[in-house]
Amino acid sequence: MLAVSLKAQVTDTSTTITETDTNAVDTSDANYAMCVFFEDKNIYFDSCTFEPLYHLTYSWLSVPYHYAGNSKKGVDCSGLVKMFYKELYDIALQGGSRHIYPLTKEVPIDALQQGDLVFFKIRGDKISHVGIYLKDGYFVHASTKLGVTVSNLSEPYYNARFYKGGMICLPK
Questions:
Q1: Is 129 known to be catalytic?
Q2: pLDDT tens per residue across span 127-136
Q3: Which of 2, 71, 92, 93 counts the most CB atoms within 10 A of its CB?
């Protein structure tokens, strides 16, 4: 089990951390830093958490936005989704957000699961943005202003532009 909370279990079920037991965790550890980042957003890991998604998300944070980019030098939203899906699920996706959308089966917003995709209509009436759902309304995406970041569907900007959620369903 990955680190859950500073007041809960860390890495194994026999270790517990209390507020006064600060020496129990090496705070320079990358897992610790990742957990602190997600805990600041009230995202806590449990036994159902797909940890590779969170490790990959954390490793891409702050990569700058670059239209049509697909590397850590710069990436756009669909490039990020394609890279994550290839690495995490061995699924090769093609095209931009509006090309990826038809490959999904719609999932109601209250039923989204880790790894599902969230689509937005940022400019006009066409799908123009995509992110990967994490949990509790949070998703990872490449923002034109912030680069790769984690946002929440309840934020006014994204709430107003959210179109649909979906899971990838590729033909056999």
A1: yes
A2: 999 999 999 9
A3: 93
